[in-house]
Amino acid sequence: MANSVEEQPGLCSRCKTLDIAGVRSSTHPRLPLGPIKDWHPDTCNFCGFLVNLLSRNPSIQPRDEQPYFLFSIKTRSAPDKLFQILDHRLIVLSTAESGPPPESVPYLAAHIGEPPRWLKYVQPSIDFERAKEWLRVCTELHGDNCSGGKGYVIQNFRLIDCSTGAVVQARSDEPYVALSYVWGEEEPSTQGAHAYPKTIRDAIVATRNLGHRWLWVDKYCIHQNDTNDLNDQLQQMDIIYQQAAVTIIAAAGTNAHYGLPGVDQSYRKPTSSVLIGDERVCAIPKPELHPSHCRWISRAWTYQEGLLSTRRLVFTDDQLHFECQGGYSAEMLSIPVSSFKKMHAPSKPYLHKRYRAAGRMGLFPLNGCGVDPWDIYPRITEYSARRLSHPSDILNGVLGIFRAFEKMINPMCHVHGIPFAKTTPAPGGTSLMTTNSKRALPCFAESLRWDLHAPSLRREGFPSWSWTGWYGSVTWPGEYTDVDVVRTARRIERPRDPSVNEGALGISFLLTDGGAMSWGDMQGRYEWLLTHKEPSIFLDVEAHVTRASYCPGEGQIQMFCLPLGEGTCVVSASMTTAGELRAGDEFLAIHFHRTARGNQGRSGMSGAAAVTQHLLIIQQMGGYWERVAVASYVIDPENKVLSTWQRIRLG
Predict the structure, then answer these.
(1) Which of 303, 300, 589, 614 is nearest to 443 (CA)?
(2) What pTM, to 2 d.p., does this model score?
(3) N or C: at which end does the chain have fewer Cβ atoms within 10 angstroms?
(4) pLDDT in tens, 286-329
């Protein structure tokens, strides 16, 4: 029998009087807790419990002056979709007097005696029967919808035999498990069941417990010192992860020696809870991985591994998560199969639109890396914010995502990370989707409109005209990445005269053997180029070019002056380079693309469209030019910027 409130040890005077049962049953609208500075975490179990929960959110300061409240909400009103099907009440800790808890702050549950059937406390070891049940339910409800990469054969594929630890040539008909983890410090790729680091040994144990024999681990199944094998496997990353029966994601720890929490005696945290009177209060972590607490979510290589996988078992210090393309489960929540079925569209292997509308149910987007050609742009932005140990890996670490977009109904290709529609007839031209003639696909010139969050430095070995050639996080025009914008031809308006853009840019690619390849030839030999990695960092660009004068400004926005027929046009430029520019240096502005806003002469509408000219500001670097900024201006038909048609070599 629990101690009475008056006799409850380890609680401060305030916490002894908290009516948790009233909050749980919603008879109290809220319980005021005061600001953190008035709490007693060193002497009070409940105050310490709450401070520990808030420490998950790095934006919350220990001496926060804001008062906190405890109140309950119905799970049907929770923003997290999985909780909505529980039909219970959860307790919220927040500075607001209503609504969901702040980001990273868990929900709370309270109960007397044994926990309710829907709530499961985390045990020291993982129950793999539950994990197998999650996989079985996914197969039953989703079938091939959660089995990607079908129809593709992985070439020169090797797997770890979990019965011996040896790396062997794979057989095409054998299901396998993939591992995504943080390598940590580089070490020799030793083989043998006892020579592998702890995370790999635990993954072998987990694979066997899931009923499988074969495990794929990139470091050991790819010949890291064989350039040809490495390049071949990098081009297959999409189907390797998509075809896996499940991907084990080691989201805990900072290196390969940490292990998988809950597997083969690898430690994991027990469920955080505290007793107040007769009520046991526990924390239910929300489905999220925060960079401040999870090294895996901050690394560049693991980005595509998580998105490309169609079934994932995520091992964290708190609990085990399962996520596929149509559902999410967590170890602490016991949800009947019948409830999951209600979440799906009638007789369909995917979730009802009510649940898909949010984009995700758990840790990953329901659509994986994307379903629309324009989705490549936010993927690049998200990837570029991740950390790389080796700068030279900037393109290799995202090749799997590019390959996935190449296999879509409306394929997207890339050159040095600059995307374009496979059917684009010219670098500045447009293309229309085969499924809907009103939906325009991105062109190469549009993809040159990338920007950086802040001016940065060059990354050696990659072109200045690509985001891969610069350190820093990449941004795109809002209309490229806004998921709420309907993707139609009006999403990015192009001038009605197609020759304006198609004739405004000519491109040929220089090859590493000294030859050149036209835009058309490059499209025709795209697969060959991927295999042989022939394009150099140089482009020969034919375009309208204007001499630009640098007018020093402040911060990221600098000014450049362009000559007009009468006078001067001053344009503000977003700087790419953090290097110092001098007013006497020579700069050119390449007119590479135009967009339009307005009616463009539509019937029944008045007023002319405003046409914006987009510019690359480039600086001479000896025998070639490099991008240093991007700019734009609205064209004045009565007083145009002076330009000449030139051939420029960009590097």
Answers:
(1) 614
(2) 0.90
(3) N
(4) 888 888 889 999 999 999 999 999 999 999 999 999 999 888 89
